[in-house]
Fold these 3 entries.
Entry 1:
Amino acid sequence: MSTSFDTALMKITPRPLPVMACGAGSFLWDEAGKRYLDFIQGWAVNSLGHAAPEVSAALAEQAARLVTPSPALHNRPQLELAELLVAGSDFAQVHFANSGAEANEAAVKLARKWGQLHRAGAAEILTTDGAFHGRTLAMMAASGKPNWDTMFPPRAPGFRRVPFGDLDATAAAIGPQTVALMLEPIQGEAGVVVPPAGYLAGLRALADRHGLLLILDEIQTGVGRTGTFFGFEHEGVRPDLLTLGKGIGGGVPLSAVLATADAACFEFGEQGGTYNGNPLMCAVGNAVVSTVRDADFLAGVVARGVQMRIGLERLAECHSALEVRGRGLLWALRLRDPIAEQVVTQAMTAGLLINAARPDVLRFMPSLRVTAAEVQQMLAILGSVLQAVTAAEVQ
Ligand SMILES: *Cc1c(COP(=O)(O)O)cnc(C)c1O
C-alpha cells in the first residue's frame, strides 16, 4: 500500500495509510481523528497502555535531570532497576540493553563464555522450530522462521533447531558441543504456541543432566504478560539466563538479560553498548516493573485473561474456529481458513487493531490495564468482522 508520501522510507513492512497521532490507555487516534481500540499495543510493548501516567512522569522527570552520563559511569535508575529485578527473583545480576535482539545476543555471549569456562569450549545453542529471537544476523540464525536461514547468507553458525515442545528430539540433538537450550516459554510470533505441560520442567532436567544452561526468551511473555511477573513461574522451573524486552519498557526501548550467579560470567571489557542502562529508559523500567509486580495488578491481568479466553472460545464456536490458545493477556485464535489478513484489515476499518500472526491465526496483546468493557467491545467488533469476512468467503 505504498504511496508517494512514504517513498523516503525503506521497504520494511506494508503499512496501512493512517498516520498515528496520539494514544491514551487502550486507544489510539490517527491524524484524521479516527479512534482505534488497540489490542496490539506496539507489539505487546505498552504494558501499561498508551501515554501511561507513570511512563510519562518518569520520562519527564528523568529527562529534566540526566539523560546519558556515559555507560562507563554509574547512574541511579540503572542501579535501582537492577536491584528491583534481582530482589524479586533467583537471578543474581542484570545487564541492560535497548532491544530484545540485543539482550538475546548478550545471553548467547554469556552461554558461550560459560562454555569456555566450564565445558571445554562447547558453544552450540539448541533453539526451536518456529522460534523468534530477533533480527540481528545471529538471532535470525537462532530463530526458526521459514526462509530466514537463506535470506542473508552466510547464516551465522552455532545454532541448531529442534521441534518446539518435543523433549525426545531435544535429548537426541544434545551433543558434546551443546552448551545451552534456548526458547520462548510460549512462542509469541509463531502465533502464541503453548507447549505441552511439563515441557519446561523436562528441559530443565535435560539441562541438568547434560550440564547445559537453560535460556528463556521472555521478551514477549515476561513482565506480567501471562499473569505472573515471569512466564516461567507457571511451570515452577528456574532458567539460568532470561531475557526481557518489549513490556519492561512500557513503550520505550529497554531490554535486559538476567543471570544466576553461575551464569553471570562476563568480565570487564566483554560486553557494552553506548545506550545500555541509560537513566532515561531505566527510570521508565523502574516505573513499569514496580507497577506490574503488584499482586492486585497481576490479579487484574489474570481476570481479564479469563474473560478473553471465555469470549474467544464463544466466538470460536460461532465461527467454527479451530483453537483458542494463550495465557494471561497473550491470546491467539486459530481460524479454519487463511483469512487472518482480511479480518485484520476489516477490523482496522471498524476501529479495532489486532494482529495476524499467521495466515490463519489472529493474535491479541492488549494493555495489561485493559478494562472488562474494552475486552467486551473488542469481542463485539471481532464477532461482527468475522461474520462479514466469512460471509464474503462463502459467496
Ligand atoms: C519481539 C521479540 C524479540 C525481538 O525483540 P526486538 O526488540 O524487536 O529486538 C525477541 N524475542 C521475542 C520472544 C520477541 O517477541
Entry 2:
Amino acid sequence: MPVSAATLRIDLNAIAENYRLIRQQAGGAQVAGVVKADGYGLGAVPVAQALMGAGCRTFFVALFFEAMALKPAMRPSDTLFILNGLHHGAEEACAQLGAIPVLNSLDQVERWGATARRLGRRLPAALQVDSGMSRLGLSPEEAEVLVSEPERLHGIDLQLVMSHLACADDDAAPFNTLQARRFEALAQAFPHVPCSLDNSGGAFLDRGHFDLVRAGIALFGGAPNTGPNPMKQVLELDVGITQLRHVEAGATVGYGCSYVCAQTTRIATIPVGYADGWSRHLSNCGSAYIAGIRVPIAGRVSMDSITLDVTSVPEEMLFPGARVELIGPHQSIDDVARDAGTISYEILTQLGHRYVREYLPARPAPLNRSNQT
Ligand SMILES: *Cc1c(COP(=O)(O)O)cnc(C)c1O
C-alpha cells in the first residue's frame, strides 16, 4: 500500500453492538437493518452479514437493484423489503427474487395484485401509509379506499404496515406524537398485520415501538437524535501526509486565495478531496487531527487534496506519510457533518471509492445476551 493511501476502517463489531443497543431500546419490537445506498456507503453485504450475526433477520433497501445485489448474500428465511416500492416493469423480477415491495400507492397495489394473479400465487407485500411526511405512501383517503374495497388486496399477502417519522431526531417534537396517533388509527384498518413506524430516532423515543423498528444511521454510529450520542463509532478514516511546506506571512493557500497566512505557517497537504466525499463546504472550516492535535483545513477543499494548517504540531510529527485522522476518536461523523452544514447520513453516503477499505470483523455476542430477535 502506498504511504499516502487513505484508509477507511469499518468496525463490523461496533455495528453489531449498535444493533444490540437498539434492540434494547426497542423493548419487545423486532429490529430490522436498513442497508439502502450500499449500507449507507459502508458496503451492504458486509454490513448485513454483521447484522445477521447479531440476530437481525429483516432488511430494507431503497431500490430494486439494491435488493438484487443483497438477496444472494441473505439466508432464505431472511426478509428483504424495498422501501421505494414496486418499480415499473420489475414486477415479475421482484416476485422471482423474493424481495418484498413496500407498496406506496393504489397503482402499486393494483400492479402487485395483478402480478400475483398472473403468477397464480399470493405475493408478500408491505404497505406504507403517509402519516405526515407527504413523501411516499397512501394518503389516509387512499388507505380508506383500500379498506372499503378489500378485493384490491386480492392475491397480496400483507406482511407489514408502515409509515415514516419526519422529526424523529428531535425527541421533543410534538409532531412525533401526532404521527404516532395518525399511524395507529391508519394501522387499525389492518388489524392482524405487524406495524412499523420508527427509524433510529424513533427507537429512542420514550414510548412503545410497534412491532418492528427500521434502524439505519444509529447502526453506523450516527447520533439518533440531538442528545448525547449513545452509539459506538464505527468508522476511522486516516490518510498520510503527501507534502509539507513553510509559507510566509501574507502567502495564500489554495484556489481563490481564500486563506491568507497571518504568520509563517506550516502547511500539510493530504490526498483526499471532494471527489472522496470530503465536502467543499469544509473549506476553511473543517478540521483534521494529528496525534490528537486539531489541525484546521486551510483554504478550499480541492478535488483530490486538502491543505491543513499544521503549525501547532511538533515538527518531529510532521513528515511525508505521517497519519492524519479525518474520522476517528477525535472527530465523529456528526462532527464532520456539523462543520459541513449537513447530517451524518450525507457524510457516510458520500464516502468515496478511492479509500482502501478495511473491515474489522464482528465477534460473537456476549453469552449473557440473547442472540435472537
Ligand atoms: C432511511 C429510512 C429508514 C432508516 O432511517 P434512519 O434514520 O437512518 O434510522 C427507515 N425507514 C425509512 C422509510 C427510510 O427511508
Entry 3:
Amino acid sequence: MPGFELIGDEERAAINEIFDRGGVLFRYGFEAQRKNVFKVAEFEREFARKLGCNHAQAVTSGTAALRVALAPLELKPGDEVITQCFTFVATPEAIMEAGARPVLTEVDETLNMDPEDLERKITPRTRAIIPVHMLGAAARMDEIMAIAKKRGIPVIEDSCQAPGSTYRGKKTGAIGLMGCFSFDPVKTLTTGEGGMVVTNDRDVYNKLCWFADHGHMHVSGIPRGEDTKEIRGFDFRMNEIQGAMGLVQLSRIDSILARQRANKSKIRENIKRLPGIRFRMLADPEGDGGDTLVFFTPSREIAVNMNSHLVKNAIETKILPSALGWHFAGNWGHMLRRYRYYNVRNLASRWPKADNILHSAIAIPIYVKMSDEQIQRISRAIIEAGQQYLR
Ligand SMILES: *Cc1c(COP(=O)(O)O)cnc(C)c1O
C-alpha cells in the first residue's frame, strides 16, 4: 500500500511542468494556453496500455469510477447489482447512487466473492455483477465470468485495491466488461484523490466518458460550448495536477509490486510453521500484488487476542478482525435497513460464512519500504502472539 510512501521530487517536477507550460489545470480545451500539456489524457493512455485495455477514463475517485461504470447500464428502480459483503463501503454506495439495489454475496477463504453464493443470488432483476479484488488479490474470476456469461450479465471489476495484480495472466480490472481503480491516499498508486475506469468496449467507453463530463461528447474541432450531447451526465472530471501525479506513480508500478511481493513472502516464510494458522487462499498466487498478508486463526477469540498482542507491540494490522466497520456489510445497517431483507436485528447473520472467516483473520499491511529489521520485528511479534494464544 505504498503510493503515499513514494511521493517526492518526481511528482513535484511533473506538477511544476504544468505551471511552466501555461498552467492549465482543466482536463479539456484551452488549447492555445496549455502548450500541448494534457496530463490526464496522457495518464489515461498510459494506464490503458499498462492494463492492456483499449480505453481508460480518469475520474475523481474510485467511488466515482464505480458510479461512472454503472452509467452505461441505465439502471432503473428495482434493478439489482450483485457485489460481495466484504468490500469497502464505496461499492454498495455506488450501486445505490446509480439507482439499484445492492445484493451482497458471501466471501470464501479467498476473501473475495463466493461463486456458489453468487449463483444463488442471481435473479431476473440482476443487471450487473461486481466482484472485488480485495487486499491485492484476485477473485475467482474463471468461475464468476462463467456464471455471468451463462446468464448474459455484465461484470464490472472493483480492482481499487489491486492495480497491477493478475489472474491467470490477465490484469485484474481487464477481465470483465469494465474495471475500476482508486488513487486515494492509501491505495497502491495515489493522486491524492482519483480513479479510473477501463474497458475494451467502444460504446461502453463513450457512454461512461460522456457521463463523467455532463454528457459532453468531446467532438474535436468545435468549441466546448457548442459540443453535442445525447445523455444526461454529471461532473467526475480529474484535473491536471492529479494526472501529472498519476503518470509518475504509474511509472513505478512494477517495482512497487516486486518489492511488496518480496517483503510479503519473507514474512510469510518466517511465520509459516506456526501451528494452527492457515494463509488466505489465493485464486492465483502468482498474480497477488503483495499488498497485505492475511492468515486465519482457529477462532474469533484467538484472532482478537493475537491482534491486540500485535497492536500492543506496535505492529500495524488492518481491517481484520476488529476494524470491519467500513468493510463488512454486517455493520452497514445505516444504509441497508431501507431494504426489508436487510432490516434485521442481527444483520451479520445474513452472511454467516463471511462473518466467521473475517473475524478469525489477521491482516498485516505490506509496504514497499520495509527494512529487514522491520520484517524480522513483525515476524517475531506474530510468532510470539501465536505461541501465546494458539494451542
Ligand atoms: C478505496 C476503494 C474504493 C473507493 O475508492 P476512493 O478513491 O476512496 O473513492 C472502492 N472500492 C474498494 C474495494 C476500495 O478499496
